Amino acid sequence: MVSDLIFNEKTLMNRIIILLAAFILSIQFSSQAQFKKGTLMVGTTVGSTSYSSANSDYDYDNGQLRNTDTKTFGFSVGPQLGIFFTRNMVAGATLSLSLTSTHTITNISNAGVNTGTDTKTTNTTLGIGPYLRYYFASQFSHNMFYAQVDGSVATGTGSTSGSGFTATTTTETSGSVSGIFNWNTGGSLGLEHFFDPRIGMDVAVGYHYTHAKSQNRNTTNTTHDANSSVTTATNNYGLATGTNGLTLAAGFHWFF
């Protein structure tokens, strides 16, 4: 009887300790995770991926038909730093290393004669830009939705390669890209999941516009089918392009 009473008292005491510990931890979690003015957000983008595609058909009065298909893929990664200036709003900056690849195929048909080109350009840039993020939840939870607007400027270098054909020739082209200056702006909607009061992972889908400007220097070797002779020509030009499309991003953040 006495032993049963001692056992029940110990069991009750253990349960009380467990409940108190759980209650204290829940309070600690809520207080630590609550965003407030001055909270720092430090993180990194695991990867921001973008893809855009454009296809154009030209039908000229002289009967010439022309089709141009352009696909652009981009990937960026880099650290982020922000600070909350209200409970829901954080402003900061992102440093990014980006890789952009563009593939353009052009086919022309004129009076039954076909010609075409296939060009690939790859650019690597280093950029920096601001962002503004708003968390919709009035109170902290394990999953919080947010909206973000951002922009950046970047500079870097790149390379080009390509091939082409006419009725009597084939071409091979290689070159360099310099003086790159890019800027972009856009917005996204995302979800941040918190593994811990101070550690979160987010994923977001957005829409961005990018304007790119560069100087290009290309060397083209042309092989003439009739006698297999090769001629070489150099082509220098400035290029400015604007692209827009969907982006997919993911990142980790720590809150202090």
Q: Can you put this structure into words, describing what you see?
A:
With 256 residues, the protein is mainly beta. It has two domains: 1-33; 36-255, Beta Barrel (Porin), CATH 2.40.160. Helix content is 12%, strand content 73%. It has one helix at 2-33, and strands spanning 40-59, 65-84, 89-110, 113-135, 143-165, 169-196, 199-224, 230-255. An eight-stranded antiparallel barrel has the order 1-2-3-4-5-6-7-8. The longest helix has 32 residues, at 2-33. The radius of gyration is 29 Å and the shape is elongated. Mean pLDDT is 85; it is low at 1-7 and 19-33.
Supply database-style keywords.
1 helix, mainly beta, 8-stranded antiparallel beta barrel, 256 residues, elongated
Model regions low in confidence, pLDDT < 50 over at least 5 residues = 1-7, 19-33
CATH class of the largest domain: Mainly Beta
Supply Rg: 29 Å
CATH structural architecture of the largest domain = Beta Barrel
Quaternary structure annotation: single chain
The total count of helices amounts to 1
Strand adjacency order, main sheet: 1-2-3-4-5-6-7-8
| Proportion of helical residues | 10-25%
User: What is the name of the CATH topology of the largest domain?
Assistant: Porin
Helix/strand-derived class? Answer: mainly beta
The helix/strand series, from N terminus to C terminus, equals HEEEEEEEE
User: What is the number of independent domains?
Assistant: 2
Compute the separation of the termini in Å.
54 Å
Shape: elongated
For the secondary structure, the number of strands is: 8
- What is the typical, i.e. mean, pLDDT? 85
What percentage of the residues does DSSP assign to strands (E)?
Answer: over 45%
Described by strand count, sense and barrel closure, the largest sheet is: 8 strands, antiparallel, barrel
